[in-house]
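thread from #wetlab-drylab

HS: before we spend reagent money on co-crystallization trials with NDP, can we at least see a predicted complex? here's what I'd submit
DV: go for it
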Amino acid sequence: MPFDYDLFVIGGGSGGVRAGRVAAETGARVGLAEEYRMGGTCVIRGCVPKKLMVFASGYSTAAEDAREYGWNIDLGDFDWPRFRARLHGELDRLEGIYRTNLARAGAEIFDQRAVLKDAHTVELADGRRFTASHILIATGGQPYMPEVPGGELAWSSNDVFLMDELPRRALIVGGGYIACEFACILNGLGVETSQYYRGAQVLRGFDDEARGHVAELIQNRGIELHVGTDVERMERREDGIWVKATDGREATFDAVVYATGRKPNTAGLGLREAGVKLGRWGQIIVDDYSQTSVPSIYAVGDVTDRINLTPVAIREGAAFVETVFNGNPTKVDHSLVASAVFTQPEYASIGMTEEQARDERPIEIYSAAFRPMQSSFIDRKERVLFKLIVCAESRKILGCHIISPGAAEMIQMVAVAIKMGATKEDFDQTVAVHPTMAEEIVLMKTPVRTA
Ligand code: NDP
């Protein structure tokens, strides 16, 4: 019996929409089900609203700086409801674009939950069943909230975008991307912000020198960062949420935000029953072509817990279509993927950390931390950091770490050179653009250490 669809996609986020649209453009009959809003985490409750909040929160410091530069400015308070209305208007607009592009390509959209029934069948929440030659699972992830007494009082990052009013005092729990970003955002918006992280230093897995630098910046901006500290319990009290920490500290907040990681969104999807192998965290196990243990079922994006970034999910979605619908088996290259933590200033990096590289081979470290012209002029103490990790034998740049305003924009450019295999000498031969902060990347002549 012929299938109803050539491809049925479960999940309308970055990976699922890209795969659905590109597959439909090849002439394939495509159905896509999304239970919440089209666009997924990135557009609706992740990268996009987060970045807009980063922009909003940056103006408080910008205004302080402007005053130092001679402007007579009185910034006043941040009007969260006004910003929120505009933010949600923008998200609606983007969701509309996703929807239109998908429909224009010829895909059929179902605004409801779908689950697997077998290797070729999905069932919608309204009971309709469809068969498909291939099924793509692109259901993403969701916040992981550890169990703590009183934990139901805490928000996840999803809730921050929806809050009615700005809290006066907020606690962020965690030390990863989301925790550091939201601590900076709330602090910039004028919220008294504390951050508790259970480990010894924030941003585990990143370069140690850069982690120390970010922690210093976070604290200098006025965030009360407590490492080696976790929440023991919480209680709703008259004046807010009372929090007892593992180090004995007690404090009261108007909002507690858990940013303690994300878990693949695979529960209740009928995956195991259909024979799809899952890993320890519930992630879907896939091969290099994003194929699961069931040959007709593929999975892309955060649900596979490979590199949980939007552009990676998009690449995986496109490679899946190339493999299955264009007869051109395509692996996604997961090496040398740059990313940025949108703290203020930003921390952007690509490649290895110093710690990873020195365990593998002899290396040279070039690193410069300094006050850039724009802030040194007004006696702002914040320093930027530029760091290169170089293989002592091949001379190739193994890693680059930048902490500075605009670091995410810079790393995108550096990433091209590093992906092409640039050596330290290639960087040295490149003439500086003056006066910039970024020129430091081609001006560091002497290693600060070797290992
Ligand atoms: P991360 O995995 O980066 O960080 C999770 C943090 O929570 C860690 O500090 C971790 O501590 C802590 N934690 C985990 N479990 C517990 C627990 N039970 N109790 C207390 N603390 C705990 O996750 P995020 O949620 O920040 O981000 C998820 C992913 O989303 C990122 O890995 C990234 O791939 C992506 N992302 C990317 C962004 C970007 O590109 N700018 C922005 C936001 C997210 P420990 O280190 O000790 O394990």
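DV: Residues 80-104 form the longest helix (25 residues).
HS: ok that's useful, forwarding to the group
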